[in-house]
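Worked example

This section walks through a single chain of length 409. The input is the sequence exactly as stored; nothing has been trimmed or padded.
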Amino acid sequence: MSLKFYDTCALLELQNKILESDFVLSSVSLYELEHIKVSKNKDEETKYKARKVIRILDENQDKFTTVIPTEKTYKILDKFKIKDSPDNLIIACAYEYNQKNKIIFKSCDICCRVIASEVFGLKVKNAKDTDEVDYTGFKEIAMNETEMASFYEHLNENTYNLLINEYLIIKDKDGKIVDKFRWSGEEYINVKFSTIKSEYFGTVKPYNGDVYQQCALNSMSYNKITMLKGAAGTGKSYLALGYLFYLLEKDKIDKIVMLCNPVATMNSTRLGFLPGDKDQKLLDSSIGNMLSAKIGEKEAIHDLIDDGKLLLLPMSDIRGIDLKSCGVYITEAQNLDISLMKLAIQRIGNDCYCIIDGDFTAQVDMSQYAGANNGMRRLSEVFRNHNLYGEVELQNIFRSEIAKIADEM
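Given that input, the structure is written out below as tokens.
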């Protein structure tokens, strides 16, 4: 198996992704990262990425090998009649290392990739490309009658290579959904969900029988942690709050704790200082708007807070918190980086239930939460295939026809 050799721009792009396997880099990249983090000519986002990569490398020194240019490296540049520049020196280091240990040279820079491939003959790959298919939490399989009969006869065999708690949606040859199952790790279990009734939400059920919402409700009923992904209007907060209030009213939890990181919507103008205490500030933000839309007037929300049934907690206040016997709702979770998400999840006790919602593909509001540094994305990568975790990406927008069309913008 070939090792990955990252140049500087690949390190900046991939961030924590570099830790997925052992890798190699040049000391030239370390020098460049040190220069970038304090450069007056670099934007704040790039400098932030450089600082983050340096911290990742410092904390994971056992994961990588550093190639230091020597006199031999400079002779390689002379051999190929390539000028001495940081990029070319990194490629020469990769070429030198490749003589004994086969590598794949990864870069976001087309010029570096062409030189590495066409001049030095290295195997290259764009660092922005990934072999990973985005995980939705389900697979949709069309089966003919023979295939269905065979599947039902072998429910204890993982025929379609699902992860634990991943869903299988079966369609017939005409594309009609005929059944759905969850892989438990030992067998395929037919998807069922209980009727959820809540004083605040009434009967909570999949809109128009939506199969993805069925899977979401099933996941919440089976797992300690469920991640709900999807575009605005797919029903994430409706299902999450409906289920948590159901647990609250059935005395299965003592309270609902909403963890949030109330950042301004990307490209919007900030209103500035808002008067009031913590709860008033949060209720005047997007969190309050969402709760009002689902629960009703803000007076009702204040009553829940005063009765100790609802706790609104900004991420800035969670260090040291020990959450017990509660339903934890991490909303707009796309606006968390890996360290914030890790901190939040580490607060959760064994007697808690946690629902995480967001859309890290389209609704990230600050650059430091995007890409490989996104906490929601990383949590999915780490927790999937564990028996306490489920994930469903909701597919259909039900808010309005206008919202459905707007999703194409």
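What to look for: The first helix runs from residue 8 to 14.
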